[in-house]
UniProtKB/TrEMBL annotation:
GO terms for molecular function: RNA binding. Involved in transcription antitermination. Required for transcription of ribosomal RNA (rRNA) genes. Binds specifically to the boxA antiterminator sequence of the ribosomal RNA (rrn) operons. Coiled coil: none annotated. GO terms for cellular component: cytosol. Keywords: RNA-binding, Transcription, Transcription antitermination, Transcription regulation. This is Transcription antitermination protein NusB.
Length: 167
């Protein structure tokens, strides 16, 4: 499991507990710390989970409005806790996190939904996030895809010298 995937899993578990316990923002840092202690005690995510949770909570009303707008068949309160909080992470990463490529945000959300959600969670998450991505302004989609391209080029440049050194 990659470090970011594990961090997103911890973020989802934290948001799940936060949501289940009545959205008490003053308990969030303790929930994050508890989840690290229980699921990844030696893991150092460089602050990724705390930063992600903090930003999701700052934008929670906007994010929930996206869920209401794009999951029209389901009132927010009727979406399962897992799916609702996976969507929150996916929407945050898709719309507010400038350094995460859109495809990564969508794919990671789908994988977490498949692991922790119900039988159709992955399809549901894919449908909602895909519709949000499709409706993003073309300039923003292009800017975000450029991030994907730069990350791919950086990854390839790191792999290439290692392969040449081995030859």
């Amino acid at each position: 499991m990659s470090n970011r995937h594990l961090a997103r899993t911890i973020a989802m578990q934290t948001l799940f507990a936060w949501d289940f316990n009545g959205k008490k923002n003053d308990d969030v840092d303790a929930l994050v710390d508890e989840n690290f202690a229980n699921f990844a005690p030696q893991f150092d995510d460089g602050g990724f989970v705390h930063e992600t949770i903090k930003n999701i909570l700052e934008h929670s009303e906007e994010i929930d409005n996206y869920i209401r707008r794009y999951a029209t068949e389901w009132p927010l309160e009727q979406i399962t806790l897992v799916d609702r909080n996976v969507l929150r992470i996916g929407i945050y990463e898709l719309l507010y996190s400038a350094n995460i490529p859109p495809r990564v945000a969508i794919n990671e959300a789908i994988e977490i939904a498949k692991t922790f959600g119900g039988e159709s969670s992955g399809k549901f998450i894919n449908g909602v996030l895909g519709a949000i991505y499709k409706d993003m302004p073309a300039a923003e989609r292009a800017r975000r895809e450029a991030i994907t391209q730069k990350l791919q080029e950086a990854k390839e440049s790191r792999v290439k010298p290692a392969a040449e050194a081995a030859a």
